[in-house]
Design goal:
Helix content: 40-55%
Pfam family, one: TSCPD
Number of strands: 3
Keywords: DNA synthesis, Nucleotide-binding
Strand order of the largest sheet: 1-2-3
CATH class: Alpha Beta
InterPro entries: CHP03905 (IPR023806), TSCPD_dom (IPR024434)
Family: Belongs to the ribonucleoside diphosphate reductase class-2 family.
Strand content: 15-25%
CATH topology: Enolase-like, domain 1
Number of helices: 3
Domain TSCPD: 3-77
Number of domains: 1
Length: 83
């Protein structure tokens, strides 16, 4: 399980697990519970590269980032270590 400290969003960190280049589990600490659970459910068993592509650059309101964008950054940060 990996832990990523977020920046600029309501969630303080994201915990996630990757196996065979697929997202297996995502847990947001803080933030909007319904959105976090929905996002976690949608990402289950998704290829890590596809998840990064879909989530990168999403903004939350006037913020320059979002919880999905932060997750894309987290996934990108571990991608080089698992390939």
């Amino acid at each position: 399980m990996y832990t990523y400290k977020t920046s600029g969003v309501c969630s303080s960190e994201i915990k996630f697990d990757i196996k065979d280049n697929k997202v297996k589990e995502v847990l947001f600490v803080g933030g909007c519970p319904g959105n976090a659970l929905g996002l976690s459910s949608l990402l289950k068993d998704m290829n890590i590269n596809e998840a990064i592509e879909k989530l990168s650059g999403i903004k939350c309101g006037k913020k320059s980032t979002s919880c999905p964008d932060q997750l894309a950054k987290a996934l990108t940060s571990v991608l080089s270590t698992i390939e």
